[in-house]
Automatic annotation (TrEMBL):
<feature type="transmembrane region" description="Helical">
    <location>
        <begin position="261"/>
        <end position="279"/>
    </location>
</feature>
<dbReference type="Pfam" id="PF01098">
    <property type="entry name" value="FTSW_RODA_SPOVE"/>
</dbReference>
<keyword id="KW-0132">Cell division</keyword>
<feature type="transmembrane region" description="Helical">
    <location>
        <begin position="238"/>
        <end position="254"/>
    </location>
</feature>
<feature type="transmembrane region" description="Helical">
    <location>
        <begin position="136"/>
        <end position="153"/>
    </location>
</feature>
<dbReference type="GO" id="GO:0005886">
    <property type="term" value="C:plasma membrane"/>
</dbReference>
<feature type="transmembrane region" description="Helical">
    <location>
        <begin position="14"/>
        <end position="34"/>
    </location>
</feature>
<keyword id="KW-0472">Membrane</keyword>
<dbReference type="GO" id="GO:0015648">
    <property type="term" value="F:lipid-linked peptidoglycan transporter activity"/>
</dbReference>
<feature type="transmembrane region" description="Helical">
    <location>
        <begin position="379"/>
        <end position="400"/>
    </location>
</feature>
<feature type="transmembrane region" description="Helical">
    <location>
        <begin position="71"/>
        <end position="90"/>
    </location>
</feature>
<feature type="transmembrane region" description="Helical">
    <location>
        <begin position="110"/>
        <end position="127"/>
    </location>
</feature>
<keyword id="KW-0133">Cell shape</keyword>
<feature type="transmembrane region" description="Helical">
    <location>
        <begin position="165"/>
        <end position="193"/>
    </location>
</feature>
<keyword id="KW-1133">Transmembrane helix</keyword>
<dbReference type="InterPro" id="IPR001182">
    <property type="entry name" value="FtsW/RodA"/>
</dbReference>
<feature type="transmembrane region" description="Helical">
    <location>
        <begin position="412"/>
        <end position="431"/>
    </location>
</feature>
Amino acid sequence: MTALRPEEGAPTRIAEAILLVVALALGMGGMWMVGHSLEGGLPEGFWTYTIVLAALAFTAHIVLRLRAPYADQVILPAVVLLNSVSMATVLRQDIVPYPSLQGANAPRHIMWSAIGIVLACIVIVVIRDHRSLRRLTYTAMVVGIVLVILPLIPGLGREINGAKIWIYIGPFSLQPAEFAKIAFAVFFAGYLVANRDTLALAGKKFLGLQLPRLRDLGPILIVWAVSLAVLIGEKDLGTSLLFFGLFVGMLYLATDRVGWIAIGLVMFAAGAVVAWSIFSHVQLRVNIWLDALNPDLINGPSFQLVQGLFAMAYGGMFGAGWGEGYPQYVPFAFSDFIYAAIGEELGLTGLLAILLVYLVIIQRGLRHAIGVRDGFGKLLAGGLAFVMALQLFVVVGGITRVIPLTGLTLPFMAQGGSSLLANWIVIALMLRISDAARRPSALPTRGALADPVPAVVGGGAIEVGGGTPVQAETEAGAGRSGTPDDATQIVRGVDR
């Protein structure tokens, strides 16, 4: 990957601004077509939603160019596109002929989207160097565990639809586990970058797999096990799966041991069998997945899934058109099943376009994980991109009946405050890391922080060329490298 030169800054800013205009235009076009189809004109609140989204998007663009001028120019417009298209979908559902739903969701969706974008801007301004988060490794561990436990506190947590995963603060509700995934990503990245040599090399071999010593893996294993046990007790199996995937994925990124994927799959299969044999709600979800059209289930537990499948089937290849579907017949079509609502009105073509936008975001995140010059940034960016990819697979797979439903929401699209806030923070961290990855090594990073631990993996996952490993990474981190080659990062098989 070629580093962005200072003279390329202006074209980059212009390109991002153009992409933002296109993203906002697509969202505005969707809202206009919804109003034209259902009301014969602009829908109520059209200009308010449009102006708010545009103002926030360009504010984020300005903050990004001022505080992180070398940040990726594609990620922000891609996320704004998802957010604006979801705005059109949620607004369309507020116009359905159900008085109890009219005007209920679109105002909340724009409010949480606005708070999420503002929060992302604050993260970009406050965190001037992503490596500063490494100092908070064990603080992030404690914060993550506390967030997971919060719904169990009497008077604070509340059970909704069989899962006790929400807390209520006044009139607002939050799902703390959404933020816990960020805290655990920071903890895993900080711990693994400091211990990956011993995790990759020390320990005994079993069936050809290099197993780490228990004392090396113990802290991270305890945190993972405690968080999963609490989440299972709260009946939040979707987030449990997400944390498990984050744990295994970041362990593989740190050690480059394919065996961890095999061990993770075996552990997942064993855990799934145990959960199915113990928990009745897991058995019910598996039955819904295997036999959704069962007459005993279709008017009860499997009703939502079947209605979503019918909605996507009605959409066909190109969809019924904005405002021409029947999302009111799909329970929670504005949140859990928004993907089915989009499929009904935009068809398979629209769904594939949405997936491509997500894949662009994930690909850019992984690309910057390769390009950034420090081990902590590599693991953090890779972990955040991977957990977004896993959540996308789990949500879309559940709605399309590839896997059982889990209750997770589609990032940036589903109407939900916790999901929007947490995922906008994830995007802010990705953008901050992309700024470090694309910044020419001869230019110092504002507020740069030297990494005291060399980013070297004995197994060869990450090697630093040009001088000694410690010198290369430290000089690259502090911006003192004489030439870009002094900080060249090589990930096995990929030369930046």
